[in-house]
Amino acid sequence: MRKPTRYSLLLVVALIAALIVAILLRKAAPPEAARLLPESDAIVYVNLKPLRLATHFDRTPVNRAPEYQHFVDATGIVPERDLDDAAFALHRMDNPNGPNGPVGYSEVFEGRFDGEKLSRYLESIATARETYAGHTIYTVAIQDGAVTRPLRVAQLGYDSIAASNMPTAEQIHSILDRHRSAASPFSGSSLLSERYHDVPLLSSAWGIGHIGLPFSDRGYISLFGLQLPLPEDTTFVASLRYTGSLRLRIEQISPTEADAAQAAQRLNMLLGIFQSLQQIQPRNPGDTAFLKMIGSIKLDQRKDRAILTATVPIELLQSLTNVNPTASAGTQPSELSPDAGQTGR
Question: How far is CA 58 from CA 144, 160, 289, in A?
Fold first, then answer.
């Protein structure tokens, strides 16, 4: 009886070891929402659960615009309450003056959704429908001023939704194709495979690739009207994680160490300007928290990377997520707003 018992124990140990390896691989793998995204120039991911826990933004009263309220009533989806995580693929557009502007988006949202209500709502506003890989893709016409662009939406499952505002269906087809192989922790776009290992472990929000694209202005990155000394195609790895305090880390990846040194020098000069703002008398707690974050910024260079780190006060997040009821009354949460075919974003 000793040999069978020994073999049985070895088999149990091997199974436990395989299970542990699978769990570790899964933990080290990119989030599923990010793995579903198509090929792109940049990826941004946000896990809203820790943010909701830290700021309680879901408890903030919101005075919704009538169209937004209709969307909530029709679908049962309250984004600030029901959305758990979101992943965005940023696509550089060949024609920056086209309907999408310089950047198009593909998105995956995960949370708690009423699939039947959402389907009925999409049916009521869709201008076209397509069946692909066993899923219905709804096309909604988004009117933005004099420009109309398509928004394609598909339910991936009871807890996930995909959307893309790209001119063709290629990107949302790619998401549905990836959904069929999403069980693999190694699936995902080439950008995710190339850069995700640079994202610090346990980051609740991160971005990789050319994440300056939404802020491009004549070939450079512009923030708050200030042009940064960085071209729009600069590669970044940005992350936000909690390690006793909320830490922001942004790495700019340069072709050479000399380029990284030059970038660090330029950013240090810009940082000096920002930190001079600390002399300004803050008007509210949000300003105080912002100036506190500015004061904590440090810049360093490591080989081909210029690295910015800062501590983000929880008060700053709370002020950013504390929706102003008056301001929110005229805004839409997404292009999936009610009457999207007429109003849009």
Answer: 29, 19, 21
Distance CA 282, CA 272 (A): 18
Place of tokens 């820790």: 50
Residue written as tokens 């105080």?
288
Decide: 239 and 203 in contact? Cβ < 8 Å: yes
Helix (H, G, I), strand (E, B) or coil at 238: strand
Burial label for 274, CB within 10 Å (0-12, 13-18, 19+), is middle
pLDDT tens-digit series, residues 150-204? 999 999 998 999 999 999 999 999 999 999 876 566 678 999 999 999 999 989 9
Proportion of the chain above pLDDT 90, given as a percent = 46
In 3-state terms, what secondary structure has residue 316? helix
Residue 263 and residue 297: Cα distance in Å, rounded? Answer: 16
**255 to 44, 209, 261: CA distances (angstroms):** 22, 14, 11
Q: Note whether 299 and 306 are within 8 A (CB).
A: yes
Task: Specify the range with the lowest mean pLDDT, choosing from 188-192, 210-214, 229-233.
Answer: 229-233
Burial class, 67, CB count within 10 angstroms (exposed 0-12 / middle 13-18 / buried 19+): middle
Query: CA 333, 339, 341, 344: dihedral to nearest 10 degrees?
Result: -30
158, with CB counted inside 10 A (0-12, 13-18, 19+), is: exposed
Q: Which residue has the tokens 């300056």?
A: 212
Contact in structure between 114 and 81 (CB atoms under 8 Å): no
CB 330 within 8 A of CB 66: no
Taking each helix axis from N to C end, the angle separating 285-296 and 314-321, rounded to the nearest 10 degrees, works out to 130
Residue 283: helix, strand or coil by DSSP?
Answer: coil
